[in-house]
Design brief:
Blueprint (H helix, E strand, L loop, with lengths): L6 H12 L21 E4 L4 E6 L2 E7 L14 E3 L2 E3 L2 E3 L2 E4 L5 E3 L4 E9 L4 E8 L4 E10 L6 E2 L4 E5 L9 E8 L2 E3 L5 E2 L4 E2 L3 E4 L5 H8 L2 E3 L6 H8 L3 H8 L12 E3 L2
Antiparallel strand pairs: 1-18, 2-3, 4-7, 5-6, 7-14, 8-13, 9-10, 9-12, 10-11, 11-13, 11-14, 14-15, 16-17, 19-20
């Protein structure tokens, strides 16, 4: 992040950031992105190097122009960041064959290695020295351990099709304080390179969070019909169909969610 003029102030800020260390939750920080009003400047490949030892944070050294790497070899995007119907896609999907290598995007420390059968599948979360975190989902398996230091471009695991996935690919996320940021604000996946060594985070990058709060969903119950839901929420059937990308003849499945606002 942006450099502080005073080294003691820098140390206090970084200690606060590292004080939350959770090996289970992707977002343990409980920070609402809707109230983010700042402009933060990140030096993506130039930051202090830290290490964990016996649950303590130790300052080790300072490195210039620490590395960055695309998470895969040359590939293409199969799905982008943002709303997909009623679901919000918090990362980008990159085409990848099962068993192909996956790499760390920046230098950092492995925070989570876990399995989410209904979502990410086998996944890894890395906390980076530049202030961001990255997530790598649907892996076949990972070769890392929690708390391990890793360099940009270092192998972290292999592509797979685990979790909620319809075919082998890498689900890649970039996050700040637990909240997703569009990875294409940082990387050009056509050239497999950073757009810039620096990144400026502004409130507009979290606009999706405000939109999510505006949306209201109805959980379909036995006996529900489009006309009945339309009457309950005072929303025309044609509007319900447009918001949910369905036809008026769509069979409603119990337990599924239907957007009504």
């Amino acid at each position: 992040m942006e450099e502080f003029p005073d080294e003691d102030e820098s140390w206090i800020a970084l200690t606060s950031y590292f004080s939350v260390w959770d090996v289970n939750k992707v977002n343990p920080y409980k920070i609402d992105p809707c109230v983010f009003k700042d402009t933060l400047k990140f030096n993506l490949v130039d930051s202090a190097f830290f290490s964990f030892q016996n649950d303590s944070l130790l300052r080790m050294d300072t490195f210039s122009m620490r590395g960055a790497s695309a998470p895969t070899g040359p590939t293409s995007k199969s799905s982008g960041f943002g709303f997909r119907g009623i679901r919000f896609h918090s990362g980008i999907d990159l085409r990848l064959k099962k068993g192909e290598p996956v790499y760390a995007a920046f230098d950092g420390v492995v925070r989570i290695i876990s399995k989410d059968c209904k979502g990410y599948g086998n996944f890894v979360v890395i906390r980076h020295y530049n202030g961001l975190e990255t997530l790598y989902g649907h892996l076949n398996f990972s070769i890392l351990t929690t708390g391990q230091e890793i360099r940009a471009g270092e192998l972290l695991g292999y592509g797979g099709n685990t979790g909620r996935s319809t075919g082998p690919h890498l689900h890649f996320e970039t996050r700040f304080q637990g909240n997703p940021i569009d990875p294409e604000l940082l990387f050009d996946f056509n050239t497999n390179s950073l757009l810039s060594d620096r990144f400026t985070l502004v409130p507009a990058h979290f606009a999706y969070a405000i939109e999510k709060k505006k949306r209201i969903y109805h959980t379909i119950k036995k006996g529900n019909t489009l006309s009945g839901i339309s009457h309950k929420y005072k929303v025309p059937v044609r509007t319900l169909c447009r918001m949910n990308n369905i036809s008026t003849k769509k069979l409603l499945k119990i337990g599924k969610k239907l957007r009504v606002r």
